[in-house]
Amino acid sequence: MAVTLVSGGMRSGKSRHAEALLRDRADVTYVACGRGADPADPEWQARLTAHRLQRPTAWTTVETRDLAPLLGMPGGPLLVECLGTWLTGIVDDAGLWEDLCAASEFVAERTAELVRSLSGSGREVVLVTNEVGLSLVPLTPAGRFFQDELGRLNAAVADHADHVHLVVAGRVLDLSAAPRVGS
Is 51 a catalytic residue? Predict the structure, then answer.
């Protein structure tokens, strides 16, 4: 089945575009990779609620970062939101922010697992991700690590995707036929 990567900056419209790609399907599983609602953070709760309200009510939501089992199951399309929160979450879960060398190895292993699972999946998959590196270099080692690793993750997934869309200022650019950067 087809794999589509939808990338873009914050508030670019990438999530709305990804959802629109599957809007006519009732059998979508929306995979939320980020942290859940936190009663101590009402602004984050409001963001999550707004995201839920814009999705069709027939869609199923699963909150997990363990993507391989879902990709291996038969079923309707998966919409994975988003690789940036997935990356942050797997490093959080492994407690590796203080050891960025170990974190880099861990992320490389999990990225390889994700790409293998995508390649072997019989499901249509739409993955949303944040585009990184278009602005300032982060001031902290953890910020630079995140930017570098998400850039690598995005490139690895894009290399195996059938379609790659970049959303900028609410406009969609189809990069699927664009030349690829050599290794």
Answer: yes
Predicted confidence at residue 54, as pLDDT, reads: 81
Q: Rounded distance, CA 45 to CA 74, Å?
A: 32
Q: Which residue has the tokens 């575009």?
A: 17
CA distance 71 to 29: 11
Q: Which of 17, 51, 160, 165 is catalytic?
A: 51
Average pLDDT along the chain:
92
Between vectors from CA 181 to CA 179 and to CA 183, what angle results, nearest 5°?
140
* pLDDT, position 150: 96
Beta-bridged to residue 126, according to DSSP, are 4, 79
Q: Strand pairing partners for 174? A: 165
d(CA 17, CA 52): 15
